Amino acid sequence: MKKFIGLILVIILGFFLYKGAVTLSQQTRNPGLNNYYNQNAVSDTGVANIVTSIVLTYRGFDTLGEVTVLFLAALGVGVLAFFKKNKKIKESSFIIKTGYKILFPAILLYGIYIFVHGHLTPGGGFQGGAIIASAFLLQLIIGEYKMSSAWAALFEGFSGLVFILLGGAGLLWLGTFLGNKGLLPLGTVKMLFSAGIIPIIYVFIGIKVGFEMTGILNNLNKE
Amino acid sequence: MIFFIGSFGLFLIGLLIMMTQKNVFKILLGLSIAETGVHLFLITIGYIKGGLAPIIFDLNPTQMLNTKFVDPVPQALILTSIVIGVAVLGLGLAFIVNLVKHYKTEDITKIKELKW
Fold first, then answer.
1. A108-160 pLDDT, tens digit each
2. A40 in any annotated domain
3. What ipTM was reported for this prediction?
4. Does residue A208 form part of some domain?
5. From the candidates B73, B81, B88, which should be mutated to test the interface with A, based on the most A CB atoms within 10 A?
6. Domain limits at B19?
7. CB-nearest partner of B87 from A7, A24, A70
8. Structural domains of chain B, count
9. Among the four A42, A82, A94, B95, which has the fewest Cβ within 10 Å?
10. pTM, 2 dp
11. Is B51 part of the contact surface with chain A (CB cutoff 8 Å)?
């Protein structure tokens, strides 16, 4: 009975959404604010990746909110974790134990590459952090997790603090959170050391997100 | 047009799963599927015909003023939204493990302590 009512409601909603889709696909977009971002991002910030300049310079305050939400989620999982003693882990096969020794540094290097080059290619701090956490997930699956939770929490907290201090420095110097113009020289586009403090911010965000997700996975594994 | 139908379809599938399933874990997965549909819809709105990805690939930046790029603002907003979706999923899983441990059942119709 409940499934029948649910199906009827979804079909009614789907009908109205379909009419909305037909109306939306017949309209043409007027170019608006995105024209300003597309044409002035390079001269304002010096980044080659326009999405990075929006996330870290034009809408930098939303990034602060995102970092806070991630921190709260990691905190909540750490509080709610229910530690079981003597958890038996099944012995892994020989292939994964040998492959792990080659895969683990390769995945870490890939993740670090993505967040270091966040201002040149698609990617950035959050994506690189998730890839680093997947490398530690491989360690957790085998049962050889070696990073102690105290060091991971220390790195994560320190990186978050540096991110907030850099944003506050932008606030004091320029009047905008994570402002970019006066702190470091902008450099030429598409070089690795360009775009002010944006690569430095992304490095710290990448380290923070990587260790945060690793902490969440470790806490969920211990239950 | 096909992207609009696909994103709305994903959202409706996620909504259907959340409404009709009894296993607590499946309800959380339905939430994740519905979020994927919403993200796809927001990116589809930002498409401009004949536009390229918003990354500058030529070393001469003044030549880039003539090319059309797609809208980069929804992409930046969805970056934030995906990360928040992951955070909600992680916290929800911690809640679910504690819930199942306390009530010893995964069926949500048997968890009836909250009376009207």
1. 999 999 988 888 888 888 999 999 999 999 888 887 788 778 888 888 889 98
2. no
3. 0.83
4. yes
5. B73
6. 2-48+70-110
7. A70
8. 1
9. A94
10. 0.85
11. no
